[in-house]
């Protein structure tokens, strides 16, 4: 009986030692994988430099990096860019303060948004004329550089103001996504571009919502007719 108990004790000790070694091995592997994810290319070993991040992580890091570079924006570009948000933001604020949807104010905002959308296509056209390896003067590049103007024109042509808002907002969103993917833009431009586009799209979406909420309210003059 004593011999059997000793044998069981030895087996239990062997199993415990094996379990501990297995746990340490797993922890080591997990720690190595975590180090691969957190390590930067310039400070990692050659094996870790071959690590590829997933697309969502790459996009998030690209946005964060662009926002950090906004501090290096030339003062004229930063000042004029932020001032360019005033027509976007003031329209929904004015309508909210009035408590009614004002078609004239909304039309003015939409016209300004279409102008900015057309301008963004001109920015790419200018870089294509300048010539760069990252922005080759190809048919696809030149075609997209004139597409924002056509989208903006369509947004102003449609008779329905709500449809115009949808078209213009979609154009601004497509422009910022494609410009963010495109190489050749300065680092500060990406950050400024993201901030300005975010608030421009947000203001247009707010006015679009007002067409269904504040637009349902009747003006005092409506009761006189």
Q: Which H/E pattern describes the elements?
A: HHHHHHHH
**What is the strand content?**
under 5%
**pLDDT below 50 for ≥5 consecutive residues: which ranges?**
1-13, 30-51
Radius of gyration: 29 Å
Terminal-residue CA separation: 107 Å
H/I helix tally: 8
- What is the total tally of β strands? 0
Shape: globular
Whole-number average pLDDT? Answer: 79
Q: By helix and strand content, what is the structural category?
A: mainly alpha
User: Biggest β-sheet: count, sense, barrel?
Assistant: none
Helix content: over 70%
Describe this structure in words.
The protein is globular, with a radius of gyration of 29 Å. It has helices spanning 2-38, 55-68, 75-83, 86-98, 103-130, 139-157, 161-181, 187-212. With 225 residues, the chain is mainly alpha-helical. Residues 1-13 and 30-51 have low confidence and may be disordered. α5 packs antiparallel against α6 (139-157).
List keywords for this structure.
mainly alpha
In short:
The chain is 74% helix and 0% strand. It has 225 residues and is mostly helical.
Strand and helix layout:
Elements: H1 2-38, H2 55-68, H3 75-83, H4 86-98, H5 103-130, H6 139-157, H7 161-181, H8 187-212
